[in-house]
Design goal:
This protein is α+β, with helices and mostly antiparallel strands. It has helices at about 10-15, 15-20, 25-40, 45-65, 150-155, 210-215, 245-260, 300-305, 315-320, 325-340, 380, 400-415, 415-430, 430-440, 445-470; strands spanning about 5, 45, 75-80, 85-90, 95, 105, 115, 125-130, 140-145, 175-180, 180-190, 205, 225, 265-275, 290-300, 310, 355-360, 365-370. It folds into three domains: about 5-130, no CATH class; about 140-300, no CATH class; about 315-470, no CATH class. It has 15 helices and 18 strands. A seven-stranded mixed beta barrel has the order 9-10-11-12-13-15-14. Strands 3-4-7 form a three-stranded antiparallel β-sheet. A hairpin with a 2-residue loop joins strand 10 (about 175-180) and strand 11 (about 180-190). Helix 10 packs antiparallel against helix 12. It is globular and about 65 Å long.
Length: about 475
């Protein structure tokens, strides 16, 4: 039964009390007047519908606010539908409570959008302001200073392995990070495996000590990675798109992981300036400054800490023999890799032979695989690595052939039951996936590439399921 919206204005005000509590009186009056105007046009609504109307009323209040870049990021919350489920999109931290009076508790493992089953026990939700660097989708402008060229040379960045692979050294080095008036000492190092063979400007990893990050937007981001532009154009010998637009495309892939509810890192796009301070600044090739698009994302250890667990080291992952990953989750992740056209990974239920897959150990002893490193995915590079046999749909476009082949393979290996459950997960998030692609900051070619391939994914998947029922 719907709620009489005109008689429940007080309830909506309570639901949004944290949003108007600290606002100037003139803005609070604006909010209440706008709320009355909207509810007069709606006789009844569900509780979620009333909350939605309240959020509409809140828009002019939000639009009037200005934000100090070093203060807590403004919190926002909106509710929509994702298939038969509810989708809560928010910035800041998401909290829930069984009562409006509290207590309010941080929702564990929550990422935006947060999916809620309407048939689950009733809960109230609110977003609270956060100073977390990764709590906003705005492009961050950062400056990093350090002896980059010296360490790029130590790692032989951009040099193929050849017959006698070079010994690639990747030690940490001291540097400086500048962001919104902050100047923070940091530790950095080159990272990457196969990417070092084709990226003269390699990926980076950054650490900030507890002392240096206290009271800053990086208080919960002690360790993060930077996806860089790799090079100044063209394609690498392995297949990477060596252009800065590839970084925003890869950031989109991580965002889609969050939409689908997979465990993964928070990401933020950046406009990053690198200033080289290598010794011998007058020599050729050092002492340069370069500004390029890039993206920053949390280290898996930060993701693990949100789950109350810890991330396994590379050496521990290499020795896994009986990880006992959730088999349905493995199928779901394989379907995600198929969606984005990613071939540069390895995943198994027992954890053997993992590649570009992190592992989190939960407090209860269970292990969770975490997908990552998508710079060779077709959604990023714009090219497919076709492994389908030549006689498999020979007349179809390469991306159609490969996607159909991968989904067929997953169905055969996982069985129809697990394939259907995985498909349901993606189908429920279809609208959210499309919306995320449309609003993400990336080049238009990359956006169209993603939309076309997303459409092909759902068309092919539905076709496979139809054939199963015949």
């Amino acid at each position: 039964m719907g709620i009489d919206c005109r008689s429940r204005i007080e309830l909506i005000e309570v639901l949004l009390v944290d949003s108007i509590r600290d606002a100037p009186q003139s803005r609070s009056v604006l909010f209440k007047r706008r709320l009355q105007e909207i509810t007069l046009r709606h006789e009844t609504c569900s509780l979620y519908g009333c909350l939605f109307l309240g959020l509409l009323a809140l828009l002019p209040l939000r639009a009037a606010e200005t934000e100090n870049p070093l203060s807590s990021s403004a919190a926002s919350l909106s509710i929509g539908r994702s298939g038969e489920l509810l989708s809560i999109r928010y910035t800041g931290w998401l909290e829930s409570s069984e009562s409006l009076q509290g207590p309010w508790l941080r929702v564990p493992e929550a990422t935006s959008p947060y999916i809620v089953d309407p048939s689950a026990p009733a809960l109230f939700f609110r977003a609270i302001a956060s100073s977390d660097f990764f709590s906003t989708e705005t492009v961050a402008k950062l400056v990093f200073q350090g002896p980059f060229q010296h360490h790029f040379d130590l790692a032989f960045a951009g040099l193929p392995d050849g017959i006698f692979p070079p010994v690639r050294e990747k030690p940490y080095f001291n540097g400086i990070m500048k962001y919104e008036g902050l100047v923070l000492p940091v530790r950095m190092r080159v990272r990457g495996n196969s990417s070092l063979q084709e990226c003269p400007f390699p990926k980076l990893k950054v650490k900030i000590s507890r002392t240096n990050r206290e009271g800053t937007p990086f208080v919960d981001a002690r360790e993060f990675k930077i996806g860089t532009h790799c090079a100044e154009g063209g394609r690498g010998n392995i297949g990477r798109l060596r252009e800065q637009k590839a970084t925003y495309r890869e950031a989109l892939v991580y965002e889609l992981m969050n939409v689908l509810g997979f465990v993964g890192p928070k990401v933020r796009r950046g406009e990053v300036t690198f200033q080289d301070t290598s010794v011998g600044g007058d020599a050729a090739g050092v002492g340069w400054e370069l500004t390029r698009m890039g993206f920053l994302f949390e280290h898996v250890e930060i993701v693990a800490s949100r789950l109350g667990g810890r991330a396994l080291e590379d050496e521990d992952i290499a020795q896994l023999a009986d990880a006992s990953f959730d088999e349905q989750l493995v199928v779901d992740l394989m379907m995600f890799h198929a969606l984005i056209g990613n071939w540069d990974y390895a995943l198994s239920s027992d954890g053997q032979g993992l590649w570009n897959t992190e592992v989190i150990l939960r407090p209860d002893g269970s292990m969770v695989p975490v997908a990552g490193d998508f710079d060779l995915a077709a959604w990023v590079t714009g090219q497919d690595r076709v492994t389908a046999p030549r006689d498999f749909l020979p007349e179809a476009m390469p991306h159609i052939r490969q996607l159909h082949f991968e989904l067929d393979r997953i169905r055969q290996e996982a069985g129809e039951g697990r394939f259907q459950l995985a498909w349901n997960r993606f189908l429920a998030a279809q609208e959210e996936l499309e919306a995320q692609i449309c609003r993400s900051q990336l080049d238009e070619e990359g956006r169209q590439l993603a939309l076309v391939r997303l459409g092909a994914f759902f068309e092919i998947g539905e076709g496979i399921l139809v054939l199963e029922t015949r």
